[in-house]
Amino acid sequence: MTKRLLITLFTGAILGVFCILGAQNRFGGALGASYMFAFWFNRLLMGLVFGLMPPSKDFRVLILRGAIMGLVVSFAFYSATEFRDLAGFLVGMVYGVIIEFAAFTLGKKLVSHPAR
User: Fold this and answer.
1) From residue 68, how far is each of 39, 46, 72, 98, 105 by CA, in Å?
2) Cβ-proximal residues to 107 (8 Å cutoff; 6+ apart), any chain
3) How do residues 56-70 score in pLDDT, each as one tens digit?
4) Phi and psi dihedrals of 58, rounded to 5?
5) Are 92 and 5 in contact, with CB atoms under 8 Å apart?
6) Cα–Cα distance measured from residue 30 to residue 24, given in angstroms and rounded to the nearest whole number
7) Do the domain assignments include residue 98?
8) What DSSP string describes 49-84?
9) CB 96 within 8 A of CB 69
10) Does the first or last residue of the chain, that is N or C, have fewer Cβ atoms within 10 Å of its Cβ?
11) What is the pLDDT of residue 51?
């Protein structure tokens, strides 16, 4: 497994927790465990998708790709829930940018300071 993939999976998993907390807050705790798991898993899947894409050195490309692919991956969950959580869908764009940014910055740091 590549360092980029590990970074994006970890970032997606952490952002998934924030999604669960945000959804619980927006829906007053009325969402079931399977819904929460699916929401978290969607963010983990987002991390997987970004981790499998080739890295880019152009920061503008990363931001744009993060936003677009974040929306694409989020749309899978949004459409499966009968379009109930627009905020959860839109935040996928932001999370896509965050995942790409994390892979870009942490990937550079790990390359310049490899583990011994």
Assistant:
1) 18, 12, 6, 12, 19
2) 3, 4, 7, 55
3) 889 899 999 999 999
4) -90, 110
5) no
6) 7
7) yes
8) HHHHSPP-S-HHHHHHHHHHHHHHHHHHHHHHTTT-
9) yes
10) C
11) 95
Look-up of token digits 């959804």 = 23
114, part of any domain = no
pTM of the shown model: 0.88
Structural domain contains residue 115: no
Helix axes 3-26, 86-112, angle to 10 degrees: 150
Whole-number Å distance between alpha carbons of 83 and 44: 20
Cα first-last separation, the chain: 17
What the block records as the tokens of 88 is: 């959860």
How many separate domains does the chain show? Answer: 1
Distance between CA atoms of residues 113 and 110, nearest Å: 5
Structure tokens at 55: 């890295």
Expressed as residue numbers, the domain containing 53 is 3-109
